[in-house]
Design brief:
This protein is an alpha+beta fold. It has a single domain, classed as Rossmann fold (3-Layer(aba) Sandwich), CATH 3.40.50.150. The chain has 7 helices and 4 strands. Helix 2 links the parallel strand 1 and strand 2. The longest helix is centred in the middle third of the chain and has 14 residues. The chain is globular.
Length: 179
């Protein structure tokens, strides 16, 4: 993915973009380095979200902004367990989807000030969803069996379709480092 970003930047004539791989929990950057930090659909792979948010705060300049977009836990225990199970079967690097309340608490605990939060619903077409992660066929079959055995409440909430497609919750929130 970093190679794709670097090539796209070069193709567009951007000379101020540098790619670097690292862990969210130990960002390889100096304190007060960034005006903006953006995470798009990656936070559910972080092993310690609280530590990652503290690292974001460290590398943000005073007044700097964090924007996170990610799949979100529905917050309801039965629905949450269903979603986390499906996600883990599809992608073994999945750690956890957090609810909006959990995100607010994590950001606050990290010393960030939340500016805004919005949620939405994201339709996921099953075959392309599992293909993106190259989910092994045995796990695809396990997901389908798990979907078939879901309660009527879960099927309705996630708008589960006969082909396995479903709709998930998403979150986007913006927070900043106090001046």
């Amino acid at each position: 993915m970093l190679d794709v970003v670097a090539q796209a930047a070069q193709d567009k004539g951007f000379s101020n973009i540098k790619t670097q791989q690292g862990y969210a929990e130990t960002l390889p950057f100096a304190a007060d380095s960034f005006d903006v930090v953006i995470s798009r659909y990656s936070a559910h792979h972080w092993h310690d979200v609280g530590q990652a948010l503290r690292e974001v705060k460290r590398v943000l300049k005073p007044g700097g902004v964090l924007i996170i977009m990610d799949v979100m836990s529905p917050g309801h225990p039965v629905r949450d367990v269903w979603l986390q199970t499906v996600e883990a079967l599809r992608d073994t690097s999945h750690v956890r989807n957090y609810s909006s309340g959990e995100w607010l608490a994590l950001a606050n605990d990290a010393g960030l000030v939340t500016n805004s939060l919005s949620t939405d619903r994201l339709p996921l077409e099953f075959s392309s969803w599992v293909a993106r992660m190259r989910t092994p066929e045995a796990l695809v079959a396990a997901i389908r069996l798990y979907q078939d055995s879901a309660s009527a409440e879960v099927k309705a909430y996630f708008a589960l379709q006969d082909d396995g497609s479903f709709t998930s919750d998403t979150i986007m929130f913006e927070a900043h480092k106090a001046v």
